[in-house]
Design goal:
Blueprint: H1 16-33, H2 40-51, E1 56-57, H3 58-67, H4 73-85, E2 89-92, E3 97-100, E4 111-115, E5 121-124, H5 127-139, E6 149-153, H6 156-168
Parallel strand pairs: 4-6
Antiparallel strand pairs: 1-3, 2-3, 4-5
Helix pairs in contact: 1-2, 2-4, 3-4
Length: 175
């Protein structure tokens, strides 16, 4: 079980090439451990989901693949289902979109901080949040089968930008 930790959004100095290489290596490892094939198409779809570090819709994935000259909707949906089943990506229900999983291969329920201004997100895995929900659910006789929490708001960059805009729009008057 993971511990609550300080989660950060992607920073401006983020090494995306290293990040992508690590994500792909972890995905290949998960597939190998579970005796599943990480085909070229599955890998390409996985890369597209990870590419922007923002939620991406299935139709956007399909559009990218069609530009590459390959893929039909059923193929894309099957590949996304495969990646979901192995825990390599998550589905953000409220956006009908997908994001890469920061902890593939580890059984966990995600909580997501999603910026309503720029679309950036951060994945949480708070054991205290999960425990509180499970405790309340069990107390009422409810069995939790899937637990995903989506929290909408402003990321640190957009929050700072909003504060800067507010400051810029404030006129100082001297008497």
């Amino acid at each position: 079980m993971s511990q609550d930790k300080n989660i950060q959004f992607i920073s401006a100095d983020h090494d995306h090439q290293s990040c992508m290489a690590t994500a792909i290596a972890k995905a290949e490892q998960v597939c190998q451990l579970r005796k599943q094939r990480f085909t070229k198409l599955r890998k390409r779809i996985f890369e597209l989901v990870w590419q922007q570090h923002k939620p991406i819709r299935a139709y956007d994935v399909l559009g990218q693949l069609q530009q590459d000259g390959r893929a039909a909707p059923p193929t894309v949906y099957r590949a996304l289902d495969f990646l979901l089943e192995l825990g390599l990506i998550h589905r953000i229900e409220s956006l009908n979109a997908f994001v890469g999983c920061c902890n593939p291969g580890l059984r966990h329920q995600g909580q997501f901080l999603i910026c309503t201004a720029c679309g950036d997100f951060a994945e949480l895995d708070s054991t205290s949040i999960n425990a509180a929900i499970r405790h309340s659910a069990e107390h009422s006789g409810f069995e939790v089968q899937q637990l995903t929490i989506e929290i909408m708001g402003l990321c640190p960059n957009c929050k700072a930008e909003k504060a800067d805009d507010k400051y810029k729009n404030t006129q100082l008057s001297c008497y």
